[in-house]
Design brief:
Blueprint (H helix, E strand, L loop, with lengths): L1 H32 L10 H10 L1 H35 L1 H16 L2 H12 L4 H23 L4 H9 L4 H38 L5 H10 L3 H29 L1 H7 L1
Helix pairs in contact: 2-10, 3-4, 3-6, 3-8, 3-9, 5-6, 5-8, 6-8, 7-8, 8-9, 8-10, 9-10
């Protein structure tokens, strides 16, 4: 058993690293074999050189994107959990408001981004609001799914112990729903980064989205790819932070699913 656990932990790190290395090697080899100019598709060394030429600038814009993402994601999590708990606590509220949430989510967020700039100005507010609009719906749906999937025998057990409705909700239904909640959080944090970039492209005054727009207008493709790579790394780090938090708080969830 200890050897299997060590092997499993090693594969968690080694296999993604091998996959990333293979992808970068294929990308680099393609640019070399076909002689693709860096203007069209920069090779990894071109991107590294672009980052080394302007590290302070890129890190500053990365921090701006990270700040917008975390603020919007935090608000989206709070709003999503509150709405999901309200929907599952009162069925009448669910029937009245859930179609409105679906309609709100169906609106193309790219179309909303310029309007948010008009309403809220060119500061960080429209970007944070767009992040909230993009990331909160998966959190609502996954949390509702978790809260409505509690096994009937657990509910009967709570009632047999004379638990009140609220005690059953918070001590049985909510803990059982937490694995589903984390599914929504993992989806939401990835969408939060996308929302921040969409907002920054619509209002390119700061952030990695602005770097992509400005470098495209100046025909600096390696710089644009450097910003894209930083966005990918940012998404990966935030995603696996949620994964680590899930494993820390819910060690029993893996045992149940295994």
């Amino acid at each position: 058993m200890p050897e299997q656990r060590t092997s499993s932990r090693w594969s968690v790190v080694a296999l993604p690293a091998a996959g990333a290395t293979a992808a970068v090697g294929l990308w680099w080899g393609t640019t070399v074999i076909f002689g693709i100019r860096s203007f069209f598709l920069p090779a990894p060394p071109d991107i590294i050189a672009s980052f080394r030429a302007q590290p302070a600038y890129l890190l500053r814009e990365t921090w701006a994107t990270l700040t917008e993402t975390l603020l919007g994601f935090g608000i989206g999590v709070a709003a999503g959990l509150a709405i999901a708990m309200m929907l599952t606590a009162w069925r009448a509220v669910e029937r009245a408001t859930f179609p409105l949430l679906v309609a709100l989510n169906s609106i193309p967020k790219v179309a909303v981004a310029p309007l948010l700039v008009v309403w809220l100005g060119y500061g960080p507010k429209p970007k944070i609001v767009l992040v909230v609009l993009i990331c909160f719906f998966p959190i609502v749906v996954s949390t509702v799914a978790g809260l409505t999937s509690t096994p009937a025998d657990l509910g009967e057990l709570a009632r047999s112990l004379s638990a009140s409705w609220w005690q059953g909700y918070f001590k049985v239904r909510l803990p059982w729903a937490l694995p589903q909640v984390f599914v929504g959080l993992k989806l939401g944090v990835s969408l939060a980064v996308i929302g921040a970039v969409v907002a920054e492209i619509s209002s390119p005054n700061q952030g990695l989205g602005a770097v992509i727009v400005l470098s495209g207008s100046s025909l600096d493709t390696p710089l644009a790819f450097a910003a894209i790579v930083l966005l990918a790394l940012l998404s990966i780090v935030l995603f696996y932070l949620i994964v680590a938090l899930e494993r820390l708080l819910l060690p029993w969830a893996r045992a149940i699913s295994a």
